[in-house]
Amino acid sequence: MRKKAFYLNYLTVVLGVIGTGIMIGKYCDNGFTLEGLKNLKYFTNVSNIFATVVAVISIVRKRQGKPQMMRLKLFAAAALGLTFLTVICYLAPFVAGFPRAYRNESFIFHLLLPLTAIAEYIFSESDGAKRISAKGALITVLGPAVYGTVYVIQYLSRGMVREADWYSFIVWGLPIGMCIFLVLMLITWGLSILLCKLRRD
Predict the structure, then answer these.
(1) Mind giving me the DSSP string for the chain?
(2) How far apart are CA 193 and CA 166, in angstroms?
C-alpha cells in the first residue's frame, strides 16, 4: 500500500502542471482568478505550486535512492490542508460561492491536488525517517506566517486600500486581521500534528 501510495506524487505533479497552465494561460472569472502570474498573490495557489515542486523533489530522490524529506512533505501537506479548509469553510460560502470557488483550475487547486498530496503524505513510505513530533511540526507555521507578514506589509504600503485585502481578513481592522493570521498558523500546526498521527510509521 505504501509503495503504491508513492505514485500519488506523479498525480500531484500532473495536477499541478495542469492547474498552473490553466491559471497562467488564460483569464478565468471564477471569483478568485486574475490574469496570469497575478494569481501568485493567493496563498491557495502558491501552496499548490509549492506542493508540486515538493512532489518533483520526492520523485527525483526516490529514483536516486535517497530518503524522503518528510519535514518538507509535511510542510506542503499542511499548507494544502490549510488551503482546503480556507476555501471550503470561508472563501466558498462567504466570498465567492461554491460554484465559482471550484471552477476551472480552482477545482484542481482547491480540491483535487490538496487531497492527493495529503493522502500521499499519510500513506507513503518514510524510508526509515523518524516520526515528526509536535515540536518538529512547528516548522509548518512558517508558511502562513511568512505569507501573512507579506500580506500585511503590502496592505500597509498600498495605503490600506480595499483592493490590497483580497481575502477580506483586515476588513474589520488590522488587529483582527493579524489575529486571523495567528489563528491560521495555529490551524496549520494542528493539521500538521494530525497528519503526523495519521501516518502508520
Answers:
(1) -HHHHTTHHHHHHHHHHHHHHHHHHS---SSS--SGGGGGGSHHHHHHHHHHHHHHHHHHHHHTTPPP-HHHHHHHHHHHHHHHHHIIIIIIIIII-HHHHTSTHHHIIIIIHHHHHHHHHHHS--TTPPPPPTTGGGGGGHHHHHHHHHHHHHHHHTTS-GGG-TT-SSTT-HHHHHHHHHHHHHHHHHHHHHHHHH---
(2) 29
- Total tally of structural domains belonging to the chain: 1
* Per-residue pLDDT tens over the stretch 24-35: 876 555 445 556
Which pLDDT belongs to residue 73? 95
CA-nearest of 123, 163, 165, 147 to 47 is: 147
Q: What is the pLDDT of residues 42-80, one digit of tens each?
A: 899 999 999 999 999 999 999 998 888 999 999 999 999
Cβ–Cβ under 8 Å, residues 111 and 45: no
* Size (the chain), residues: 201
Nearest 5°: phi and psi at 136? -65, -30
Q: What is the pLDDT of residue 113?
A: 97
What pLDDT is stored for residue 39 in this prediction? 79
